[in-house]
Amino acid sequence: MGILKLSQAFMSMAMVAFLVYLLLRLLFSGWILPIRAYRKIKKNGFEGPTPSFPLGNITDMKNTENYVNDSLLRSSAAISHDIHSTVFPYFARWQKTHGKVFIYWQGTEPFLYIAEPEFLKKMSSGVLGKNWGKPSVFRRDRKAMFGRSGLVMVEGEDWVRHRHVITPAFSPANLKAMASLMVEPATNMLNRWTTLISCGQAEIDVEREITTTAGEIIARTSFGLSHQNGNKVFEKLRAAQTTLFNSNRYVGVPFSKWICPKKNLEATKLGHEIDQLLLSIIHARKQSWDGSPQKDLLGLLMEGSHLDGRSGKSLTARELVDECKTFFFGGHETTALALTWTLLLLSLHPQWQYQLREEIKQVIGDEEIDFTRFAHLKKVPC
Description:
By secondary structure, the chain is mainly α.
């Protein structure tokens, strides 16, 4: 009996010690460390909205966003061109109070807000990009989207190595080759619209159409025309993006992954499936590549990596996977939403539609689209 009581007492003490450890860790990561960082940042001259740890400024951001959304629903005013204030009302409010450069907090992670080109120019000329540092929150909460070894995540000499391989892939000659991969999906979308209008359909979901077309273009320019897996990867990447943004509303808050464990597990699973698909595509490309010039991003990165392999500047298969994921998230939705907004504005200003059509007729005409002619378009943004 004495041994049993002793073991029970030991278990109780171990449990208490474990709970105390968790509590101390929570206090340290949720309050002590961020408060020390906040004071240090403020001492160095950076102002910003006062955070309330462990949530930082998230509560203020949500309250402001909800208030503005409610106001927009009640208002019958015309569409505002001030996108920044509409989409990010908290940034607009903080900018009035703290200027165009300030620190705000997502959970326990500080973020530098910059809306001053001169400040960014000064930083760029005085600090090497490889030494800027990357928020650890991206590594924790966005791994399924970006991985760990893409250009968004890497630092130091790895960042330099990635830039060395990636930059030539976006040369004018390579972009011209990529442009040819974009023509067919865009033409198919416009033909589909023409057919729908001819059949008497009154409305077209332009945002969905452009987002789908942009996804097809990304699949082609990323993975090539010959790979049917491109569309499958695109669908899974979109699913991972939606899952992460719907579940993780508390980015930067300690232990936030446990708030929506099911969604986070789903995103992790999708991330693994995407990796396996991309790795299989890379393996197939390596097996079939005969050294001929490549058009799509993956082929160009593999080609550049192969050329620099002897100097220790090649990209591994894992790094190629993460760069393709980064390219998708960096160029897909941003482009689709910008085009959707442009079409909305053109619908409100028919006179600009006429002017742009006339310019395109004069510069491009009815001939095949030539990438080099885009520079001659003065009114059409390229």
